[in-house]
Every structure is written in C-alpha cells, then in structure tokens.
Amino acid sequence: MDTTSRATGAAPAAVLDGFLAADFPWYGLDDGWTGARWLMQVGAGADGGVDYGSVGHGDEPAARQYEGVPDTRRFVVVVTVARRPVRRSMDGTGVLEATSASSAAWLAGSGLLSSTWPGQLDRSLRQDWLDQQTAIAWDLADDLDGPNWSSLNLPVAGVPKDFRYRESEYGWVLAGEARGVLLGAYGRGISAYGLGFAPVPDIVRYTEPRPAGATALGAS
Predict the structure, then answer these.
(1) Is there a contact between 112 and 140 (Cβ–Cβ < 8 Å)?
(2) Is the pLDDT of residue 108 over 70?
(3) Is 196 contained in some domain?
(4) What letter does residue 21 receive in the DSSP assignment?
(5) Which of 66, 120, 165, 212 has the fewest CB atoms in 10 Å of its CB?
C-alpha cells in the first residue's frame, strides 16, 4: 500500500484530506493523555481508498539516532486499520487477504523499526538491517498466538479489551480490535501499561497546537 508523507504540526492539506476521506473511525489515546498529538500518515489500498493511518503522541519518532547519544525520545503511535474483506486486486490477477489483528501488528512493528534503527549502523547497512528485521516482524505478526506475544488488557472507549503485546530492545508493539476497526500501537519511553484508547471525535484535533499548560508528554 502506498502512503502519503508524514505530517506534524500544521498538517499539509493532502495528508489531512486523507484522514478525512476514510470510511472508518480513527482511534488515538484517550483523554488521559494531555500531551502533544499529531498526524503521521495514511495508507491507500489498491482501489485508492484509505485502508489505514497513524497518529502520534509525545515526541516525534523520526529515525534520528547517533552513535554514543542516548535515545531519549518518548512517544506512542496508534495505528487504525480498516476492516476489509478478501477482495480482488485491481489488475484482477489475484486476491488481497482480509485485514486482521495481524495486519495491525505488522504495521505497528514495521513502524517501530523505521523509527528506532540503531544509530551505530552505517547508512549503507541500514537497509539490510531494516529488511532483515522487517521480515522478522512479519513472521511475528503472523503468529499472534505464539510464545513471543503476551496478553495485555487495556480500555478502549472505557471498555476493557484484550491485546497481544510484545517488547523488544527498540520499544513495544501491541495489536487488537476495536469497534469497526483493528488497532495497532507502538511506543518507546512510555509504558503501554495504563494507556487507554478512544475514537477521535475530530481528527483535525491532531493538527492543532496543544493547549497552554499541557506538557509534551502528558501521560495518564
């Protein structure tokens, strides 16, 4: 799936339009989070419709790490994935798999990797590392009931929901379901325990400056 460029702060109109064009609800952290919120990207399916998107909370998880410099960024990214049935590809030569919690886990896992690649890697080796780790993330996402995942119960719109959860040296990833959509999330420097998710009543909220007095990292 193709994605638009990331957007932070005053989001470019094309990115915001992508979020507004979705035919499913967006999810983010609930009101227990008082810190910064911002749009990241949307992904389009073969038919051009919006299939998923990501919204950020806290520090921007840009891939900026340098050898010998501790990574002190703290962020949570929530990925909303539309529920899509099995459907034919645009060229008619095959079918696209139905989306599932594994789809959300895959998008969250690959998002974490792209945000936290080791700073000691030479740039020429980065792609090899990313390809290798992405393949591992795909295998893990395809086996959510396997031993590499544990259960984590978190509220979604105030109702406890079960998620599949795993930690690594780069951060954490979780995946599950919500009303009408599939949810993924990844983070670093902020514990997943104690977080809550909720539908976003107005996605434009993620383009607005945070309220006066709110910290960048206002966790619940």
Answers:
(1) no
(2) yes
(3) yes
(4) T
(5) 212
